[in-house]
From TrEMBL:
S-adenosyl-L-methionine as UniProt keyword: no
Upper lineage: Bacteria, Pseudomonadati, Pseudomonadota, Alphaproteobacteria, Rhodobacterales
Identification of the protein by name: Acyl-CoA dehydrogenase
Classification via Gene3D superfamilies: Acyl-CoA dehydrogenase/oxidase, N-terminal domain, Butyryl-CoA Dehydrogenase, subunit A, domain 2, Butyryl-CoA Dehydrogenase, subunit A, domain 3
Key word Oxidoreductase present: yes
Metabolic or biological pathway: Amino-acid degradation; L-valine degradation
Residue span, Acyl-CoA dehydrogenase/oxidase C-terminal domain: 230-378
Molecular function terms, GO-annotated: acyl-CoA dehydrogenase activity; flavin adenine dinucleotide binding
Amino acid sequence: MTLDLETREQLVATIRRFVDERLLPAEAEVAESDSIPDLIVEEMKELGLFGLSIPEEFGGLGLTMSEEAALIFEIGRAAPAFRSLFATNVGIGSQGLVIDGTPEQKAQYLPRIASGELIGSFALTEPDVGSDAGSVRTTALRDGDSYILNGTKRYITNAPLAGLFTVMARTDPAQKGAQGVSAFAVEAGLPGLSTGRPEKKMGQQGAHVCDVIFENCRVPASALIGGVEGMGFKTAMKVLDKGRLHIAAACVGLAERIMDDMMDYAVTRKQFGKPIADFQMLQVMFADSRAEAYAARAMVEDAARRRDAGESVATLASCAKMFASEMVGRVADRNVQVHGGAGYIREYRAEQLFRDARLFRIYEGTTQIQQGIIARTMAAEARARLGL
Ligand code: COS
């Protein structure tokens, strides 16, 4: 859906108000209790946040990537744990079905994912398979009208709450690489499927990750996403292309919020008889932060617009994710520095946001993986130019 400008602005304003009035005041409690209050979760559902990217025919808002990014810039201003709760439904936990699912699979799951009744989760990473996503070891072997899954998935966001997993598993053990991997929509609660203990993390308290373990877990053959074996790695890559843009937008939102915190502190805190905002060495940090966040915002907006226009944006999504996640890391670090001693103290939030931001450079593909994707595209383009 392409919203008219007024509706889009209203939606953005509604989300901004929700962030200011409901999420920011709850941040400390969420960090302390490691959970998001039920009332806030209900409000998120009512706002349609779980279904931002799900087509309208399945009950979602059917937003374009540009519209989704505009909202994520706003939500991203709050501690990332809030966004994490619904982000798998908007991104990696639903898009396998949206992009490659059969009509039956979409009808079966997307309405409940859009409403937030079902939490979707994306199970790619394994104990021995991280960046090298084509080497998935979990197996899904055909047995009559079923597949039998065996293996362990690791660091799976929202797995403790999930009702549906998009699971990448090897259907053809003879194929060692990406070609032997298929994607499955696997419902929680099946015999042979269990989840591990939620991990204790560096930051983002309130968001939960754990192992997902398959022990002779029988799933119906109809769970094979798209109904075609061997397409799972490509499905995962397409999902991640979109996911990386979403993450980049979240980084922009968080950086903009951190800059607000930084400047509020800098104009009120006085040293040597004047606000520390007046000191040139700090001004360098402010200006660099503003310019870098603006650049990241422009990258996300451009890549999102191109994706909406039908262009392939895999490389641009990697550029945006790499730049924006590194950028928010620098901004979060400068904020700690500007706060001085207070930057190390829990009450001031600077240290929490610094820890929260650290994950962005890692998940949905590390900075080094993004660099590899970008560089390899550049080399392919050069070879094509030179006819090599
Ligand atoms: N969209 C569609 N298809 C894609 C694609 C994309 N973005 N990227 C790759 N493919 C296709 C390729 O075209 C190739 O197809 P063919 O076999 O038909 O030629 C196939 O997928 C295999 O691709 P490739 O050879 O590039 O795979 P690699 O094993 O070299 O892996 C990287 C590529 C490293 C980019 C991939 O493994 C990756 O993204 N790793 C990071 C994983 C990640 O983000 N993990 C985070 C956990 S999820 S939160």
